[in-house]
Specification:
By secondary structure, this protein is α/β, with parallel strands linked by helices. The chain is built from 28 helices and 19 strands. Strands 12-11-10-13-14-15-16-17 form an 8-stranded mixed sheet, sandwiched between helices. β1 and β2 form a beta hairpin. α6 runs antiparallel to α10. The longest helix is centred in the middle third of the chain and has 23 residues. It starts with 9 loop residues before the first helix and ends in a 14-residue tail after the last helix.
């Protein structure tokens, strides 16, 4: 058993000199019954835009206060303790601003132990403890609540979660033990594993109440008053019913089975490279049979190992990119130059055009008109869009009035003159240079002089697309990723003739669409497709030389990517993949392969075989027959090295060419547009750590490398 009271935490304090301290303020409140409850308010002195976080100084202050309240409880001065937060916020978890600077595992262990010491006091006061969840409660903030005897929640709270595995950590201040023993293993797996790995999904107050995380839920108008009244009732004998608290049957029969099912699901979705989810699964499994003291000691060791590991450091780098760099894009012009967009024109009526129209009308809530030469396709597109809007209403995501409004805002016509008052016109036509040139040249005669034109090209030159325009300075690249509504990245292409007004309008529009925009120069493939083309080109080259599909796919398992090469090709479409490889081979024939076999596979139509549920079961026999005949197959290790070095080489070239402002933009693109795992930090930290950067150009993309401490 760890004696937390004997530990010296002074070295942690030295590391936290810049901490924004969340203070703990206490006041006594006499309840209706005459009992006295000490109400502790967590408050860092800032507004809701700067949530409470729990750093070493704040934790020690809370710890000292709880010790004094325990003494008062022993003396009979108080009957209970309650904790709540400042307005709209309980706590956003541990202060992670300096955790990446923790120099050793020994100090990382202390960080876990300090959290257990302070929060664990809530279960050792000698009187009941309550937490009134009045707002955001994430990570350590939710663990404050879990360490207490009882919990209430404000019905309007929309962000309750244990998101740690998303960041390469585990709930390390009691969450991995307390939660499953409170709400059952299946519910705990949802909160600790499933939700973080589904784009960091949050619980709302009603979810937390239904799961049993909160024992009671009250409206926001009198939340504190009603929580205090409820606490008074509990102190006077009101029985709290917890239907999901695990019993003997669950512990004996269901617990390990649920964990094993979750483990298999994680393996199928993520592979086995990511460390944190499996560490969390181990702790959740052990929570069935160990006591609280042993569980907390296991959490101390587990979280410390993760903090000093490479994946956490990479995750924090990736988190910083998404939270900071994405909000202040490198190279962006003055936002004041952006023109307002009051009407949108979409050229085309295919799948991408439909997705564009739906996104623009949902997010901008302005008129959106589609044009196409084919009336039947237009009618199909409008039917699809209107059905999607209706579906949002049927699912309760929009009101009846909003449904009617959005439906009315979308229209279609074969007459391009409908674009005469459009402020923003984007094309979604076939990926062929002459087609795009002619479409824009035709549209230009109908639009106003200050309308902005955008092309969704994935690999063609924006400058060449605008060659027939009278005003090419108004053209900007605006490359979405499929599916448009889901993928968060837009590559905004600043072509040589693009002016700052067009660029600023594109950046402003991307922001209003809820997308992360990265500015690139007008080079083949921009960022994501250029790197994927290098990877897929190497994959097809290996197959062309006689390597089985399976060997190629297995060669990149260590990357931790969500899809193997041929699953990715299957997703983007074999014809699209062949076109992208051809485009890059034409631009860079010395290092991008063209594959005749890929064109044959595109005509054949498939490589991957899937079962009824969509799970990959193998490779198409016809596809294997098409590529049969290569006489110099490679091993998985040979392919892996070629791909690693190829990516390092291509990124190095892109940075020298100034395709983007820095390596951070490459990683932001790959994380947001290609699903490069958070725990890898994107491409460049990974390539540094495995030595590819040194092998290719004798240096690293980051100095020092983004990796855990070696001591």
């Amino acid at each position: 058993m760890t004696n937390y009271d004997s530990i010296d935490f002074s070295d942690l304090i030295a590391l936290s000199t810049e901490e924004v301290v969340t203070h703990s303020y206490s006041q006594d409140i006499t309840l209706s019954s005459g009992k006295v409850i000490a109400l502790v308010t967590l408050d860092n002195g800032m507004d809701y835009k700067r949530p409470n976080t729990l750093g070493p100084q704040g934790l020690l202050e809370l710890d000292r206060l709880l010790v004094s309240l325990s003494d008062r409880a022993d003396a009979g001065e108080i009957d209970a303790v309650a904790v709540t937060g400042k307005e709209f916020i309980l706590a956003a978890g541990a202060d992670l601003s300096r955790v990446s600077d923790v120099p050793s595992k020994e100090m990382a262990v202390k960080l876990a132990q300090l959290g257990h010491r302070a929060l664990g006091r809530l279960g050792e006061l000698g009187v009941p403890s309550f937490v009134f969840i009045n707002g955001l409660a994430l990570g350590g903030g939710l663990e404050v609540a879990l360490n207490a005897s009882y919990r209430t929640v404000d019905a309007t709270v929309s962000a309750i979660a244990l998101p740690e595995v998303f960041l390469g950590l585990i709930p390390g201040w009691g969450g991995a033990y307390l939660l499953p023993n409170l709400i059952g293993i299946e519910n705990a797996l949802k909160v600790v594993i499933e939700n973080p790995l589904k784009n960091n999904r949050m619980l709302k107050a009603a979810d937390a109440f239904e799961l049993g995380i909160a024992d009671a839920m009250f409206g926001s108008a009198r939340f504190l008053e009603e929580s205090l009244q409820w606490a008074d009732a509990v102190l006077n004998g009101h029985e709290v019913h917890r239907p999901h608290q695990p019993g003997k049957v669950e512990r004996l029969a269901k617990w390990n089975l649920a964990v094993n099912i979750a483990r298999k699901s994680v393996e199928e979705k993520l592979g086995t490279v990511a460390t944190a989810p499996y560490v969390a699964l181990d702790l959740l499994e052990q929570a069935r049979k160990v006591d609280k003291e042993a569980a907390f000691a296991r959490e101390d060791e587990a979280i410390a190992s993760l903090i000093v590991g490479d994946q956490f450091q990479a995750s924090m780098y990736a988190f910083d990119l998404v939270q900071k760099r994405a909000k202040k894009p490198a190279g962006a012009p003055d936002p004041k130059l952006a023109r307002p967009v009051g009407k949108v024109g979409v050229i085309g009526a295919g799948l991408m055009a439909r997705q564009f129209a739906l996104l623009f009308v949902r997010k901008l809530k302005v008129p959106v008109v589609l044009t196409d030469i084919n009336q039947y396709k237009l009618d199909e597109a409008l039917t699809y869009i209107h059905a999607e809007i209706q579906s949002m209403h049927d699912k309760g995501r929009i009101s009846s009035d909003e449904n009617k409004r959005l439906q009315a805002l979308v229209s279609g016509t074969t007459n391009a003159a409908a674009f005469s008052d459009a402020d923003w016109v984007i094309e979604a036509v076939f990926e062929e240079l002459s087609v795009k040139q002619d479409v824009f040249a035709n549209i230009e005669q109908y639009i106003t002089e200050d309308a902005i034109l955008a092309t969704n090209t994935s690999s063609l030159s924006v400058n060449e697309i605008g060659a027939k325009l009278k005003h090419p300075e108004r053209l900007v690249g605006f490359h979405f990723f499929n599916p448009v509504a889901v993928m968060p990245l837009v590559e905004v292409v600043n072509a040589p003739q693009t002016n700052e007004v067009a660029l600023a309008t594109a950046m402003d529009t991307a922001k209003k669409l809820g997308k992360t925009a990265v500015i690139t120069t007008d080079s083949p493939g921009f960022v994501v497709n250029r790197l994927l083309a290098r990877l897929l080109g190497e994959a097809m080259h290996a197959v062309d030389t006689g390597t089985p599909f399976k060997t190629v796919d297995e060669s990149v398992a260590s990357f931790g990517m969500p899809m193997a090469p041929f699953e990715l090709l299957d997703l983007v479409g074999l014809k699209v993949g062949a076109h992208v490889l051809d485009t890059h081979h034409a631009a860079f024939p010395d290092r991008f392969f063209r594959s005749d076999n890929l064109h044959k596979l595109a005509e054949h139509g498939s490589i991957i075989v899937r079962g009824r549920t969509g799970k990959i079961t193998g490779y198409d026999r016809g596809a294997e027959a098409i590529v049969k005949g290569g006489s110099s197959p490679m091993t998985a290790d040979q392919i892996r090295l070629r791909i690693e070095d190829g990516l390092a080489d291509e990124i190095h070239r892109m940075l020298e060419e100034k395709v983007v402002s820095g390596a951070q933009d490459i990683d932001l693109c790959m994380i947001m547009g290609a699903g490069w795992p958070f725990q890898m930090g994107g491409a460049t930290p990974f390539l540094d750590r495995i030595g590819a950067s040194q092998r290719v150009f004798g240096a690293t993309f980051h100095n020092p490398m983004i990796a855990g401490p070696k001591n």
